[in-house]
Amino acid sequence: MASLDAARSSEPLSLRLRRGLGNGRVTAVLILLPPALILFTLFVILPLSESGYYAFFNWNGYGSPTDYVGVENFERIVGHSIFQTAVGNTLKIVLISLFIQMPLALVLALLIYRKTPTNAVFRLIFFVPYILAEVAAGLIWSFVFDGNYGVSASIAAAIGSEPYFLLADRDWAFVAVMTVIVWKYFGFHMMIYIAALQGVPEDLIEAARIEGASRTQIVRYVQVPQIKPALIVSAFFAIIGALQVFDIIIPLTNGGPSNQTHTIVTYLYTFGLTRLNIGFGSAVGVILFIAAVTVAVFYQRFFMKRGAVA
Amino acid sequence: MADVRLEGITKRFGSLTVIPDLHLTVPDGSFTVLVGPSGCGKSTLLRIISGLENPSSGRIAIGGKDVTKTEPSQRGISMVFQSYALYPHMTVAQNIDFGLRLAKTPTVEREARVAEAARILALDDYLDRKPAQLSGGQRQRVAIGRSIVRKPEVFLFDEPLSNLDAALRTQMRVELAQLHQSIDATMIYVTHDQVEAMTLADRIVVMNKGRIEQVGAPMDLYDRPETVFVAGFIGSPKMNFVKGAAIGHEEAETVGFRPEHVTVSDGGEGFEAHTKVVETLGADTIAYVEADRLGELTVRLPGHIRLKAGETLRLAPQDEYLHFFDQNGQRMEVSR
Amino acid sequence: MSRAQLIRNIARVAFLCLVASFVLAPMLATVLGGFKTNAEIRTGALALPETWNLEFYASIAEDPMFWRYLLNSLLISIGCVLLTLFVGAAAAYVFAQIRFFGSRMLFSYLLLGLMFPFATAILPLFIKVRDLGLLDTYWAVILPQTAFGLSLAILLFRTFFEQLPKDLFEAAYLDGCGYVRFFFRFTLPLSTPILATVGVFVFVQSWNNFLLPLVVLNSREAFTWPLGMMQFRGEYVTQWNRTLAFVTLSILPAIVFFLAAQKYIVAGLTGGAVKG
Ligand SMILES: Nc1ncnc2c1ncn2[C@@H]1O[C@H](COP(=O)(O)OP(=O)(O)O)[C@@H](O)[C@H]1O
Ligand SMILES: [Mg+2]
């Protein structure tokens, strides 16, 4: 249709409009586009901009913000030790995702990417945690880790030791959280790799085999390079995902013990929303926004060449 | 019933001029074929007639009425696409019917017209099928059916046969010719295949780089090509071209003669040639030869002359069938 | 199969089974826990129950609030799916079919939503929903959720629509079919694969969403199932069997549906990577 327009743009506007109405071009634009624009502006762009505005106020959400405090909110957040822990925890999730979850997912994908009935069963099993709602996953694992009444209690009873309260341990609680995160998301990354591996032409692998490449060499020199776009994409999801972790934490630890297991979003929720510190919470939102956009832009710039599709 | 007149049509895509100032009249009721190499602007011209593209300047009149600013659906035209563009989610009947529905044609008449089209095109048994369940030839017929029910004054075809295999293409060519006879509307047909053009057309328009090289009846183009381009484009195998000076016609820049207008001579006239490749077709034998001073030539000889690669022949073009062209590639008359 | 291959294959399956048990054990304990007394859970959380008590499951199934939560979730999810499909497809169609002044800019604008997480704007969103008087209504979840899902939906739709054959539109256009009609009569019916992909994906997102309902739904009447589940957990802190029965009953149908539709979920997820 580009051509239709190219010609039309040289005509006077009135003529274009008249004809546009005749065959419904303008009508189509005026009917079909505004719902999306309105919805998106009202519930995405506007709140986002307001975050940037409220962040400079001390405001409890009632009336309109008047108590302008400059960058004080940001200073308080950055200096807050719990926020620092939350950022550290987010980085830990990124590291665990990149160095434990992704390799695990890749190994599993290589083991089961071929289309056989057994593989299909395993694929299904590994994908179940991903499909599960985060809250449900958190709840199930809080049952597992419960040293009083849960699975941990019964294991401790079985081996005759004192029950252990992992989620109450300042040093180990976040390890438990990360275990749940790996459990929950490795299947998703695995699915991305499987889709990519199935797209690698079989003759490439056969050619390598004929040239005498071993299994590991094929993986190393043929398959992994071929699915590099998928790896890049999945790492992106892992990083962006780490910035958003919330649902899993609430049932597991709710940020405790002694605020050791917060992430940026649970921090925002706990110190911004539940206490109605709208200004303060908005400032956390702004920081989160900057982090996410930085990651996205950086990623686009350095990794995602066009067509980096899994 | 309508003629089509194009006056001063130009078409630019950005800075690329695809059609520079084109004038053409397609007579009422004719079967006019636009032929030319790929990318010469045939489809663009057809789409300008249909209204899918607007010309950058110029006017289009159909049946004497200026339609330059008219919506495509109001121009009294219909078009058959190379890909057929059948609506995949509709049955054959719905495909054929769709335009009539949009035109708010009364139901009784719609049904009658669809039934008639189905009968003409032998589609009665397939009306409830989806396009995916049809063969290539049947899809082609549905596409044609879709255009005839609208009773257009002008039919436009854009390479409609190029997706068919050779046998089917021949058959559809015959059917199209019959269709033209039975509904005698104006038909404008685009193809890059000069054989198709020669067999279907009563008028051929040869295009090259957005310009019209020559307009005429098929045999006129064959007998009296006005330019080197037409001479080379019409006829198969291609006409041979040699420098005028090389064969004793200094007055002409280029001299052309068709492969079928060469005879084997035993006497002193003509020139020596070595056969390089020989294609034996039965009735004819096509020989690709290398001649002194003239270079590579193609000749078509009667089938009874047995030839092998590597033989030496004496060949002579028939004098009365020589074509002469000047430096600009235009035909010129030379007294012999 | 040679000996070496056989051994390798056994090792492979053994490893896969190990991972599978890591995946399944917690879920199995959950399902079984719903049949046990709390004392039994304490001693044998992973074992089969001595007696299969149905009462905990039954009491959940008889609780009208439980069904209320599920119904709320279902209606909200369906609302999100329908709104996303319609609004998103309509906008994507305009971008795919009609070039007009500013169309590229508007398209980029609508894709901004791909750049940042939902949570960044959650507080102003809460204020806005409250000021619009929507708190505790379905719209409080449906509208923001749809708005945030639009970017991805529009991106996926436009890519698909652009791949529909161009001359289909031209043929219909010659037949007298206008732009709006073409959208309803051709684009939508011919795009069922992408509609299904986006639809399933949006449904899953919405069904599992927690943060947004947590913020905008306060009355139990309006709770979605994740909120209901957390509420229930809070009420029966020491009675894991009831909570486990609740969890099992609420996630089971979803898991069955999602596994059946996993193809679409994966397609939607990986499609999100086509940025730019
Ligand atoms: N929409 C368009 N935008 C830019 N260039 C075009 C467009 N359509 C056709 N062209 C160019 O115009 C020329 C003629 O195209 P076309 O009419 O399709 O040729 P033909 O049908 O004779 O093969 C080609 O060089 C083609 O690349
Ligand atoms: Mg063409």
TrEMBL record, chain A:
Keyword Transmembrane helix: yes
Keyword vocabulary terms for this entry: Cell membrane, Membrane, Transmembrane, Transmembrane helix, Transport
Gene Ontology biological-process annotations: transmembrane transport
GO cellular component assignments: plasma membrane
Subcellular location as annotated: Cell membrane
Entry superkingdom: Bacteria
Transmembrane segments: 26-48, 93-113, 120-144, 172-196, 230-250, 278-299
Every ABC transmembrane type-1 domain range: 87-299
Topological relation to the membrane, as annotated: Multi-pass membrane protein
Gene3D superfamilies per UniProt: MetI-like
Family statement: Belongs to the binding-protein-dependent transport system permease family.
PANTHER family: BLL4140 PROTEIN (PTHR43227:SF11)
Protein name in the entry: Carbohydrate ABC transporter membrane protein 1, CUT1 family
Automatic annotation (TrEMBL), chain B:
Any coiled-coil regions, as ranges: none
GO CC annotations, alphabetized: ATP-binding cassette (ABC) transporter complex, substrate-binding subunit-containing; maltose transport complex
Main location: membrane
Keyword ATP-binding: yes
InterPro entries attached to this UniProt entry: AAA+_ATPase, ABC_transporter-like_ATP-bd, ABC_transporter-like_CS, ABC_transpr_MalK-like, ABC_transpr_MalK/UgpC-like, Mo/tungstate-bd_C_term_dom, NA-bd_OB-fold, P-loop_NTPase
Keyword annotations: ATP-binding, Nucleotide-binding, Transport
Protein localization: Cell inner membrane
Keyword Phosphoprotein among record annotations: no
Family: Belongs to the ABC transporter superfamily.
Name used for this protein in its record: Carbohydrate ABC transporter ATP-binding protein, CUT1 family
Organism: Fulvimarina manganoxydans
Automatic annotation (TrEMBL), chain C:
UniProt-listed GO biological process terms: transmembrane transport
Pfam family, one: BPD_transp_1
Record field: transmembrane: 74-95, 107-127, 139-161, 182-204, 243-261
CDD domains: TM_PBP2
GO CC annotations, alphabetized: plasma membrane
ABC transmembrane type-1 domain: residues covered: 70-261
Keywords on record: Cell membrane, Membrane, Transmembrane, Transmembrane helix, Transport
Membrane topology label: Multi-pass membrane protein
Family matches, as PANTHER family: ABC TRANSPORTER PERMEASE PROTEIN MG189-RELATED, ABC TRANSPORTER PERMEASE PROTEIN MG189-RELATED-RELATED
Family note: Belongs to the binding-protein-dependent transport system permease family.
Name listed for the protein in its UniProt record: Carbohydrate ABC transporter membrane protein 2, CUT1 family
Organism: Fulvimarina manganoxydans
